[in-house]
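Weekly structure sync - notes
Attendees: PM, LS, DV (DV joined late)
Agenda: review two folding runs queued last week.

Item 1: First target. Sequence and structure tokens pasted below for the record.
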Amino acid sequence: MADDLVVTRTFVIPAAELAERFSRSSGPGGQGVNTADSRVELSFDVARSPSVPERLRYQMLCRLRTRLANGVLTVAASEHRAQLQNRAAARARMAGALRAAAAAPPPARRPTKPTRGSKERRLVDKKRRGGIKQGRRGGWDLN
């Protein structure tokens, strides 16, 4: 349970369903840059996972479609020099992406009409701007 990924209170991914891969990170690192595998890739199979509720699976697949490869979501972290920090960053990024994909859609917007006051303010402002622009015109200094 300690390595399980908690997405929401009711949506927890067991550690056995997460795949981690380590590789050498690019960027500065001194003498340890060629020896330490600090970059972390965390993968989770959204399409075939038994821990994803069926009511959410289609919604998550639709929302994550640009980030999936064969139904697998992969996130990478290499911003830290230590592998443990990159593992934590990758897990947080994965949980955030899954949480956003599983979130309820926002309520539908009810269209409204502009008020009479806002229409009047807009027209007054247009008249004022028109007057300013008309004052910039040439022709008043023709002599």
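Item 2: Second target, run right after the first with the same settings.
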Amino acid sequence: MALMITDECINCDVCEPECPNNAISQGEEIYQIDPNLCTQCVGHYDEPQCQQVCPVDCIPLDPGHEETHDQLYQKFVIISGKA
């Protein structure tokens, strides 16, 4: 699954620079994650870096974008151009 940012976000600015896929951006009120770019850091790290640095724990799995580990890896390959 891709990740999502909930309305508990305090706009602390720590998640955006941690995303290796540039999937996180500032929305109208809070940060948001583009599910087309989010791989949960598969291919880059063992754990999603945004979740690791979030001080309010507001980045859960997005139930609207279910994906397997293999699907996340394939998305990583396409985004990064690595095979």
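Discussion on item 2: The chain has a mean pLDDT of 95.
Action: LS to circulate a short write-up before next sync.
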